[in-house]
Amino acid sequence: MDQIAHEIAANRPIHALFQWDAGNTHVVTVAGCFANGDLLVLDPQRGRGQMSYEFLQSAYHQGQWAVTYYYLEPLQHGAAA
After folding, report:
1. Which of 36, 49, 54, 78 is the most buried (most CB within 10 A)?
2. What is the distance between the alpha carbons of residues 63 and 21, in angstroms, rounded to a whole number?
3. Could you count the other beta carbons within 10 Å of the beta carbon of residue 61?
4. pTM of the complete model
5. Is residue 59 exposed (0-12), middle (13-18) or buried (19+ Cβ within 10 Å)?
6. Distances (CA, A) of 26 to 15, 31, 50, 63
7. What is the dotted CATH code of the domain comprising 2-69?
8. pLDDT tens, residue by residue, 30-78
């Protein structure tokens, strides 16, 4: 959790890849931290939400957080991808 908080404080969101118990995968963006330690999660299926780190580790109680992608730099408008 310390590394995640460090990245978010540096304005670098992370991606979390979930491995569902059913065998599929899913990716969410963790984009912020709240004062109580919860995380701001941007989920393409569920939308925006505030969740505990423990809840995310369990992939919404449907699997596990399998991979973390760090060092995501925001794109500047007009910059080539």
Report:
1. 49
2. 5
3. 7
4. 0.84
5. buried
6. 10, 16, 18, 10
7. 2.30.30
8. 999 999 999 999 999 999 999 999 999 999 999 999 999 987 666 666 6
